[in-house]
Write a structure and sequence with these properties.
22% of the residues lie in helices and 31% in strands. With 238 residues, the chain is of the alpha/beta class. It comes from Shouchella miscanthi.
């Protein structure tokens, strides 16, 4: 397993609780839209066994052409040891990346794509939308729906409705409005539904989509292939 050590080159305050850590691109490090990586803090591999409390599974919120690896995360006042250390890191500090992989690349199957997310989960979808805006072939249209009770909606410069590009975006601040809109979107029986959020959020969305007649093969999750049955089996969603 290759570990890429790299430095923070910029810290962007997206909102009161959300930061994006921009990292230098190490030589040989590659990724595509929808990628996640293992993001580790200094000392995680100092002992014989990795210190898992210093490692997190994070989405990459940028594309390679932007020149930096973006890691966007919410850091609340009361937070884990990992987030507490991360909050105090500054430009120039080193972090490690390894095991980078994409479970949710943009499918170009001439269908409508619906991006369903909660809060900072939108970071996973930012590169998909950028990729689509650069090259929209074999995608009918994209609709993004994000729920964030903080109302500090993220990446509004990218998630901005653009009729010419067949991109529509929607932000809501409560779950009731969100799920009503999901029911409406699920009327598209041929669409592809991408979901990013907490495990509970995934289960709730999958259950609702299933009740509206959406099939498992139309649902994309940021989970390894072997994890998909944990969310998409009949027992979980009924």
């Amino acid at each position: 397993m290759q570990i890429y050590w790299t430095k923070i080159n910029q810290i962007i305050e997206e909102s009161a609780e959300v930061k994006t850590y921009m990292l230098d691109c190490p030589e040989g490090f590659t990724w595509e839209e929808g990628s996640h990586t293992h993001f580790a803090l200094e000392g995680f591999n100092a002992d014989e066994k990795p210190n898992r409390s210093l490692i997190r599974h994070m989405s990459i919120s940028t594309l390679p052409h932007e020149g930096s690896i973006g890691i966007t995360t919410r850091i609340k006042e009361q937070c884990s040891e990992f987030k507490s250390i991360l909050r105090n890191l500054e430009v120039g500090h080193e972090v490690a990346l390894f095991k980078t992989h994409s479970n949710v690349p943009l499918k170009r199957e001439n269908k409508n794509i619906y991006l369903l997310s909660a809060g900072v989960g939108l970071a996973t979808f930012r590169p998909l939308v950028l990729d689509y805006l650069q090259r929209n072939d074999n995608v009918n249209q994209i609709h993004s729906l994000n729920v964030d009770s903080s109302r500090a909606f993220l990446f509004t410069d990218v998630f901005e409705s653009n009729p010419n590009q067949k991109l529509t975006t929607q932000f809501v601040d409560n779950r009731a409005a969100y799920y009503e809109e999901v029911k409406h979107l699920a009327q598209d029986k041929n669409g592809l539904f991408y979901i990013v959020g907490s495990d509970d959020f995934l289960v709730e969305n999958i259950s609702l989509l299933r009740k509206q007649g959406v099939h498992s093969e139309q649902i994309m999750l940021d989970k390894h292939e072997q994890q998909r049955p944990n969310f998409l089996s009949e027992e979980v969603t009924h």
